[in-house]
Design brief:
Number of helices: 14
Bound molecules: pyridoxal-5'-phosphate
Radius of gyration: 22 Å
Keywords: Amino-acid biosynthesis, Lyase, Methionine biosynthesis, Pyridoxal phosphate, Transferase
Family: Belongs to the trans-sulfuration enzymes family.
Shape: globular
Enzyme class: lyase
Structural class: alpha/beta
CATH architecture of the largest domain: 3-Layer(aba) Sandwich
CATH class of the largest domain: Alpha Beta
CATH superfamily of the largest domain: Type I PLP-dependent aspartate aminotransferase-like (Major domain)
InterPro entries: Cys/Met-Metab_PyrdxlP-dep_enz (IPR000277), Cys_met_metab_PP (IPR054542), PyrdxlP-dep_Trfase (IPR015424), PyrdxlP-dep_Trfase_major (IPR015421), PyrdxlP-dep_Trfase_small (IPR015422)
Strand order of the largest sheet: 1-7-6-5-4-2-3
Helix content: 25-40%
Cofactor: pyridoxal 5'-phosphate
Order of helices and strands: HHEHEHEHEHEHEEHHHEHEHEEHEH
Oligomer: single chain
Strand content: 5-15%
Number of strands: 12
Largest sheet: 7 strands, mixed
C-alpha cells in the first residue's frame, strides 16, 4: 500500500505496480487474467475470486488504483462511462427524483430523460452555476444532486462545495462526473461528494483506444449499492481493457500536464485572434467560472471551445486544419477537434442549443501532445483559408 506522504504523480505509478495479488511473482505490470471462472481449492471456503463478472484480479487492480487516486475507498470499472453513470443512477428507487445540471453530457441526458422515467425515477434540470436555482429544484423525494464540472461544450463551472453543502443540508447525495479534470486536478470526494464518475475513455485512458467507465465511492453503504448494481447489470470492464486503462493512468500526469499547458497557450492565441468571437476556457480570467474553478481544481485542463463567425467559416477552417483529427471524443494524445452542433449535441433541438450558446460557429478542441506551436501555426493557416473563402462569396 501507498505511503500517504507521497505525491499524486508517484501514486499514479505505485498504485498499480505493487500488487500481483495471486501469484506474487513481482510482475510490475499486473497480469491480464483472462479467465471467466476460478478453480476453488477447498470445498467449503472459496478464494477471493469466483467469476469475473463479480470480480477479476486485473479489473480489481484498476478499481483499487482509481479508488486510491480519487481518495475513495472503492472503485468500480465498467464497460463505458455511460455504463458507470447508469449503474450508479440505478441504485435509486422508483419514486426518487434527481436534480441534474442542464449542461450534462449528451448520453447522460438521454439516460436520465428516456430510461429512468420508465422506472419512475424523475429529474429536474437546473443551472448548476446558480445555487439558488439548484435549491429551488429540490423536492421532498429528491435523493441526488448530479454535477459535471467543467461541463461540455462551454466549460461551465459548478461550485462543488456549494452544491455539496446544499446536498448535506437536504440530506441528499452528490454525484460528480469528473471526466474533464481527472483526480490529477480535482478530487470531489475530498470536498464531500459521494460518488465520482468517469468516462475513462477520455483522459484516464488517454490514447483513444478503449471505451471504459469508472465509479468511486467513499461511504461503505453506497459502495455496496454500486457493487450490487455492477454485478447485477453486468456492464463490467474486461480484463484486457482494464490492463490498457492501468497503463494509460500511469502516464496521466505526463500527458495532461503538457496538454493543459498547450491548451492554455492556444486559448490565449485564440483570444487574440481577429476571427474568433469567443473562447471558453476556465483558465482565462474572462471565463465566468474562472475563480470558482480554481477554488476546487489546480488546472484548467486540456479542453476548450471557441466560436468562429459563421458556419461557412467554420467548415472551411475544419477542412483545412491539418493536425487535429475531426472527431467526437476527447482526452487522446492526438488533438481532437469536434463540432458540437452535429456531434455531441446533435440530439438537442436547435432552439435549446441556441439558448445554451451552442452555435453553428462553435468548435471544441481537446489538446493533444503535438508541439503547441505547430498547432497554432496550423490554426493560423486554416484561418487564412477560411477568411479567403468566405470573403470571395
Ligand atoms: C464521454 C463522456 C461520458 C460518457 O462516457 P463513454 O465512455 O463514452 O460512455 C460521460 N461524461 C462525460 C463528461 C464525457 O465526456
Amino acid at each position: 500500500m501507498t505511503n500517504h506522504n507521497e505525491n499524486f504523480e508517484t501514486t499514479l505509478i505505485t498504485a498499480s505496480t505493487r500488487g500481483d495479488y495471486e501469484t506474487k511473482t513481482g510482475a510490475v505490470n499486473i497480469p491480464i487474467y483472462v479467465s471467466s471462472t476460478f478453480d476453488q481449492e477447498h470445498f467449503d471456503s472459496f478464494g477471493p475470486f469466483d467469476y469475473s463478472r463479480s470480480g477479476n484480479p486485473t479489473r480489481q487492480a484498476l478499481e483499487n488504483t482509481i479508488a486510491e487516486l480519487e481518495h475513495g475507498t472503492r472503485g468500480f470499472a465498467f464497460s463505458s462511462g455511460i455504463a458507470a453513470i447508469a449503474s450508479a443512477l440505478l441504485t435509486l428507487n422508483a419514486g426518487d427524483h434527481i436534480v441534474i445540471t442542464s449542461e450534462v453530457y449528451g448520453g447522460t441526458y438521454r439516460f436520465v430523460t428516456e430510461v429512468l422515467p420508465k422506472y419512475n425515477i424523475t429529474h429536474t434540470f437546473a443551472d448548476f452555476s446558480n445555487l439558488n436555482e439548484v435549491e429551488a429544484a429540490i423536492q421532498d423525494n429528491t435523493k441526488v444532486l448530479y454535477a459535471e464540472t467543467p461541463a461540455n461544450p462551454l466549460l461551465g463551472i459548478t461550485d462543488l462545495s456549494g452544491v455539496i453543502a446544499l446536498a448535506k443540508k437536504h440530506q441528499l447525495k452528490t454525484f460528480v462526473d469528473n471526466t474533464f479534470m481527472t483526480p490529477l486536478y480535482q478530487k470531489p470526494l475530498d470536498l464531500g461528494a459521494d460518488v465520482i464518475l468517469h468516462s475513462a475513455t477520455k483522459f484516464l485512458g488517454g490514447h483513444s483506444d478503449i471505451i471504459a467507465g469508472l465509479a468511486v465511492t467513499k461511504d461503505e453503504e453506497i459502495g455496496n449499492d454500486i457493487y450490487f448494481m455492477q454485478n447485477s447489470m453486468g456492464a463490467i470492464l474486461g480484463a484486457q481493457d482494464s490492463f490498457s486503462l492501468i497503463q494509460g493512468i500511469k502516464t496521466l500526469n505526463a500527458r495532461l500536464t503538457l496538454e493543459s499547458a498547450s491548451a492554455e497557450k492556444i486559448a490565449h492565441f485564440l483570444e487574440k485572434s481577429d476571427y474568433v468571437t469567443a473562447v471558453h476556457y476556465p483558465g482565462l480570467t474572462s471565463h465566468p467560472g474562472h475563480t470558482t474553478h480554481f477554488k476546487q481544481a489546480t488546472s484548467a485542463g486540456a479542453v476548450l471551445s471557441f466560436e468562429l463567425p459563421s458556419k461557412e467559416f467554420t467548415k472551411v477552417f475544419v477542412e483545412n486544419v491539418q493536425i487535429p483529427i475531426f472527431a467526437v471524443s476527447l482526452g487522446g494524445v492526438e488533438s481532437i477537434l469536434s463540432y458540437p452542433v452535429t456531434m455531441s449535441h446533435a440530439a438537442i433541438p436547435k432552439e435549446e442549443r441556441d439558448k445554451r450558446g451552442i452555435t453553428e460557429g462553435l468548435l471544441r478542441l481537446s489538446v493533444g501532445l503535438e508541439n503547441v506551436d505547430d498547432l497554432i501555426q496550423d490554426f493560423e493557416q486554416a484561418f487564412a483559408k477560411a477568411v479567403e473563402a468566405t470573403a470571395v462569396k
